[in-house]
Amino acid sequence: MIAPQKKSAFTLIELIIVITIIGVLAGFLVIDFNGAKRQQELSTLADQALALLQQTQAEVGAGKINEDGNLLCEGAVFEAGESFQMVVAEYLEGECDLMNAELSDYGMGAGGARVEELPEDEFWVLFLPPDGDLNLENDAELTFMHPGNEDRVIYLRIDSTTNKAFLSNEENEE
Fold first, then answer.
1. Domain tally for the chain?
2. What is the pLDDT of residues 46-74, one digit of tens each?
3. 109: in domain
4. 31, 103, 143, 154: which could form a disulfide with 46 (CB 3.0–4.6 Å)?
5. Does the residue 77 lie in any domain?
């Protein structure tokens, strides 16, 4: 009598183990992708805030005027728990006319990233004509954070002496 030949095949247990391993690895990829996405949204928001401040400072320093020939103050307003907006106001009699200031969104959305900590709940950073000097008397630090990634923050520091803004990943040690 001829013995039946065994066909080589995977057992049910082997298939379940392989599928489980693939599922676990796929889960790690999804988690890592979400973390990278949150980090990118945070970096985008901080980069856009810095770009806005640099752009508005350059425009004011260059003597930007409105259609009536009045010099303009420009800058940004930051609100805790929100993003930020660009501010444009006329410079009349040595002051920015904030009562009639125009606020507008700047850049693209940054997902869930937001400004978290400010010197005040609503913080205005304006550059004044004719030289583009800051309206701040003291240095300021703004903290950007993503709600899904609280351990990763980016700081926007504004130096009132040099009229410069810069980003940092490290907490200010004073």
1. 1
2. 999 999 999 999 999 999 999 999 999 99
3. yes
4. 154
5. yes
| Beta-carbon-side half-sphere exposure of residue 106 (alpha carbons within 13 Å) | 26
Q: Name residue 90's amino acid.
A: E
- Residues of the chain with pLDDT > 90, as a percent, come to 51
Question: What pLDDT sits at residue 173?
Answer: 53
Q: What is the CATH number of the domain that holds 154?
A: 3.55.40.10
In a domain, 9, yes or no: no
User: Tokens at residue 75, please?
Assistant: 């800058």
CB burial of 104-127 (b: ≥16 within 10 Å; e: otherwise) equals: eebeeebbebbbbebeeeebbbbb
Q: Which two tokens stand for residue 61?
A: 């320093």
Cα three-residue angle 92-97-103, rounded to 5 degrees: 135
Q: Which domain holds residue 31?
A: 14-168
